[in-house]
Amino acid sequence: MPHLTSTTAGDTSTGLRTALGIPGYAHPLVAPAQWAELARPGTPLDWVVLDVAAGPGTRPDPHCLEAAGRLRGEGVRVLGHLDLTHGARAFGDLLADAHRHLDWYRVDGFLLDRCPTDRGALPEVRRAVTTLRAISDSAHIVLGHGGHPYPGYAESGDQLVTFSGAWSDYRWSQVAEWTADYPPDRFCHFVHSVPRGHLEEALRIARWQGAATIYFTDHTDRGGRTDPWETMPGYWDEIVSRVGTGVSE
To answer: Which InterPro entries match (predicted)?
Structure first.
């Protein structure tokens, strides 16, 4: 496995600063303790996605307003969830959701979930990103591909999610060669079903593949029937400790 070439558990030779990107927990009314935990000072967070109701919802939600405000108060970047539905989403609907996220929750950017990966869809994604930057010039844009896209997408988003899936696939995954032309802080990996005993190995894979923003959980998707990201992993304290030190101890 190329990502496991000679290294020891405490090796920091890559010089990679790793942080957590939270794909979006359950609604703050359902999981108040987890949202409160995210606002704990010193938690190594890159950003947290706010997904009110498959987007911003139809009206401002007081529980989400409170959760987003608490995170911003701790200096945590909050991203609004926008679903591109693999390129099938109407541009007008996407823009309307973006405005709601900005007006109601004052988000710092957007996760463009289910972003296309093929070359043909790139012009439309560029159009969307350009428009989002026009309505929020400081917006942090994450393209949620879930796999390696056509390389041209790297010129549009601030970050790309180049892996989203199960540990059984991640541990044998290969990084696309073109990603070596960009720094690690451009790439994100989301991995579910990671056993506690393999957490160190998963962190090492992320570092060797050059992904600085990660989220690992021991929850599973039960064959696509559940959302593995909506609750904290059972080893939350351990992963916070490991990521916070910048080494896999």
So the answer is: Spherulin4
CA distance 75 to 80: 16
Question: What's the whole-number mean pLDDT along residues 207-224?
Answer: 95
CA–CA dist 164, 214 (Å, integer): 10
pLDDT digits (tens, 9 = 90+) for 221-236: 988 889 999 999 999 9
Instruction: Kindly give the pairing relationship between strand 45-50 and strand 19-22.
Output: parallel
Helices (H), 26-147: 32-38, 62-73, 91-105, 122-135
Tallying the residues shown for the chain, one arrives at 249
Nearest residue to 111 (alpha-carbon basis) of 154, 72, 144: 144
Instruction: Detail the DSSP E strand segments found in the chain.
Output: 19-22, 45-50, 78-83, 109-113, 140-144, 159-166, 187-192, 213-216
Which of 80, 94, 87, 69 lies closest to 139, judged by CA?
80
Q: What is the pLDDT of residues 111-166, one digit of tens each?
A: 999 999 999 999 999 999 999 999 999 999 999 999 999 999 999 999 999 999 99
Q: Residue 7 pLDDT > 70, yes or no?
A: no
Report the distance separating Cα 176 and Cα 115, nearest Å: 18
Give the Cα-Cα-Cα angle 224, 105, 89 (nearest 5 degrees).
45
Q: What is the C-alpha to C-alpha distance for residues 73 and 215, in angstroms, rounded to an integer?
A: 22
Q: What is the mean pLDDT of the chain?
A: 91
Which pair of structure tokens corresponds to residue 151?
Answer: 């390389």
- Cα dihedral 94, 102, 226, 195, rounded to 10, equals 120
The Cα 20–Cα 48 span in angstroms is 8
Question: Collapsing DSSP states into helix, strand and coil, what is residue 70?
Answer: helix
